Fold these 4 entries.
Entry 1:
Amino acid sequence: MKLPQSWALTLIISFIVLLWMLSGIFSSDEKPTEISSESKITKKLSVRVSLSEAETMTNRLILQGHTLAKRKVTIKAETSGLVSDVFVKRGENVTTNHTLMRLAIDNRQAQIKQAMSLLKQQQALHTAALSLKQEGFQAEIEIAKANAALESAKAAVNRAKLELDRITIKAPIPGIVNTRMVEIGDYVSPGDPLAILIDLDPIRIVAQVSERYLGQIQIGKTGEVRLLDNSIVNAKVSYVGAIASGTTRTFPVEMEISNPQNQIIEGITAELHLPIKQILAHNVSPSTLSLLDNGALSVKAVNEQNKVVAYPIQILGETQTGIWLGGLPQKITLITVGHEFVKPGENVIAVDVSAKE
């Protein structure tokens, strides 16, 4: 993972570099009190140490993305007619089956009456045909014709009723009336768009991920999303694409956030923090970092022989209390104070912080 780009960490590392450059000038005046040994000429420095043990850290992949509505529906006319009533305005919240608008009835009720009359007529003819068949005066072909005419009359009634139902336009989903294309008096035909509804609960956060991490992202895993106002909310991985983009060779990934009040809208920038794997790492204070002679970041520890050991490290992440370091043994006796004045291989006197307190 990349080195976190926070100002706090940058300032700390800059401070460490400055101490490293100045240590050669002021080391003689700034070293802790030296302790002499009667049996040895070598002088030892006293350093403060603390036992550090690796903990489980959830490694996170940070991606730049944006919010997207759960679904977006364009409502279209299913019949023709004049718009006689409009019951909603743009930006209004509606529920499923909420009446949005209505078309003029025109002659639709008359068509239903006409179809009903024809149905009654065909039912009577059908009954008469069956009676004649029982008496032997009706051929099978005539019975088939009567059945077909009756079914056709029933279908005509259903079509007329459906045509009347279609003049009332209702919301198929809950959401917000994002766009309304018609006003009272407009004439519409089948297929004409009338309104666009968007459902923002839950809101989706969409980003693109490299194939390198694709196998480590699991649907249902909980992560975090940082919104434009720097607020952080919990989210779940809801979708991982199976087809790469032809230009970027990346895969779509989505997380979902509960959004019952529709406070999060579509199209704003968001940062996805995706859980990809759990690793062991040490959580330490940034002040324990040192620079090796080659300029690499490290921490210094004391081994069982009270000799200084320098471990090159990799910064994996940050917390409010410290930073996560990788590349270290499971347990180390970390030098917390005095690491600026000792070098790898040097014998020291280790003073346990917890023991002293």
Note: The chain has four domains: 7-57+280-356, 61-71+200-277, 72-100+172-197, 105-166.
Entry 2:
Amino acid sequence: MSIRPEVRSASWVADFLELRPSTIHGVGIFTSRLIEPGERVIEWGGTLFTTQEIKAGHARQYSYVPINEEWYLGSPANAELTVDDYINHSCAPNLWMLGSATLIARFQIPRNGELTADYAMWLADESYEMKNPCNCGTIACRHRVTGKDWRSEDLQLAYRGHFSTLVEGRIANSRLAQEN
């Protein structure tokens, strides 16, 4: 078993983010000011869960992100929703990952812009499929979002160095396997 990772006990969300109705899906996270490229906007925190605890339903569905092959960071099943739970998917996102649990601006995001992330950056459960077709409306829209999307060479090129630590490791391992 790997060493238990150090994580924040609660998510940190920049104070200029707010929830509003979204044209992508339901409610989304919007910025009340301009965000510069590389600026940190969300750092997930919460409770660490093992794979067995996730399967047993101890974490609220869709609240967790894999930190490594054994640990997930998320919210307990009975926890209230928080701002960071409302990040909508986009196939051409304006956020990407830094490490295992931090979202930063991919490029400049204008005031009143909705923050979006491509779930492929951290989704590592290959059985996952988003229950509704993607509604991001971008030219890059894949329409179908799955836990296997990180395997796409196009996405690997687009997000190189900005997948979660776990997914970056899987990409590196798959490249090594191809070379051997």
Note: The radius of gyration is 16 Å.
Entry 3:
Amino acid sequence: MSGIYIHIPFCKQACHYCDFHFSTSFKYKEELINALIKEIELRKKEFSEVEVKTIYFGGGTPSVLSSKELKRILDAVYKCYKVTKNPEITLEANPDDLFEANKETSTEENIFQQYKSIGINRLSIGIQSFFEADLKLMNRAHNAEEAKQCIAEAVKYFDNISIDLIYGIPNATEEQWLQNVKKALSFGVAHISSYALTVEPKTALENLIENGKINNVDDEAAQRQFYILKEELKQAGFDHYELSNFAKPGFYSQNNSAYWLGKPYIGIGPSAHSFNGKQRSWNVANNIKYIKSLEENNLPSEVENLSETDRYNEYIMTGLRTIWGISLKRIETEFGSENLNYLLAQSETYIKEQLLYIENETLKTTQKGQFLSDGIASQLFKIN
């Protein structure tokens, strides 16, 4: 068993680029927390014998919950599942929540101390940029000063901190991006997740671009910034272990690494996904329907039985994104020699173009091919 992902579907405001499930209304927050706990209890039957190694609060914005509310959920996990002795427990947090919470707490115990006292040992802080103009363009709830102050305070209490940065922001120069990366490194954090700004359908960002209020994303500029990021983090001693993730040795995200390596996990909360190796399930992406279903002791989820082709394609996608690549032995063992031959044939062009290479019976992307890995993977897929 890998871990438990808990989706907290609340945000103070909607970021222009986000297409995750969340609500900016906190009206049903208490009912939602009760429903999360109910789902944890109901799903105990499925996973009673497995060991939980990681617990991850994602969203949405989990830091909108108080430490007491988070503890209620954690207590339910410990009550219902076999949790390993020293699990990795991650909380996604926004700078404005941390900044404001610290102003409200007593001098005896600040928000970071409260998190540690309930067992959270890893923070993932959504910085995105240290430039005010970028934050306003993305409609982030925090400002640049709050971003800097919250990290400066967080590193006093946590040695396992990840921060998120976004590159490819319209009008942001390469020099500004370099300053973003250097500023992040100046705090001594051990993990950086960095993503290209993507224009998702039906988001405010798509609307603003279509109406000419914001320049479109420049893919070539984003690619250049990606290589700046790689070089700076390499020089700083970070391993590039997944397309969007960089860490100092010993600080890889255990939770996310398990996803990429195909290990089972449970997803709790509206829109959360679960995977048991052969089936994928997902909860309804609607807070009211989710709450109502669990009040009636029903799991609000749909289940899909994954075909061999589905599992093959998923391994291709995740494998190419990671430092571990695609094991040719695993392909042959799990999916047969026919699929291995298919993969090798499909890869041939990309190997000639020096986008892929084979080393120690493992297929990996080259430096040149990393930024294009998702597109390459889709060309290696099998179609039913």
Note: The chain has a mean pLDDT of 94.
Entry 4:
Amino acid sequence: MAVQTGRSPRQLDLFNGRFALNPDDLPQVGSNSAPAFVVCLFDYTCIHCRRLHPLLKDAAARSKGQLSIITLPAPLDSDCNPLIPATQPANFGACDYARLGLAVWRARPNAFREFDDWLLGSAELPSPDQVRARAEALVGRDALEEALRGSWVRDQLKWDVQLYMASSAAIRNARLPQLIFADAVAYGDIEDTEALEHLIQSHRPFARPAP
């Protein structure tokens, strides 16, 4: 995985204050009360992102509650991502997968981890119909529809994509996944848990904002 280092703001203000996020409002891997965070931009259809997911879970578990990874979908799909000129066949429907994931989080946060683990842990990417059926089973059809119709999913996905565009411009590379630390942005494939652990130990995570 390549790394681009440089000046970064603190306390979950990203890119010199252009972006600010509250970890309590967003999906994450690890403890919701962890004092430190890393931000991960990913795509459900991205093979490298799918391989990274279990490594993120391992890293969060090994931290014993000290580190959490905020996971934000940035689909490699021109339907919702202006940085993508033409969607590759492997990424068709990525925007829909991202919307469903965000809708599950919005409708029932406690169900999100099960949904995320199922979708990212499948040997093969489930079809959009299968993903929707799973989402409905976890949160209920009406709750899912309400979340999908609401403005939060649309606005959050747009925000995630804008962050991805800013991050990609900063490192001059649009590859996913991207891990945003307080002092660096790392991108591309990570081979194993040890490589991820080394990366985390080599860079400074964000601190949980003071209450």
Note: Residues 151-171 form the longest helix (21 residues).
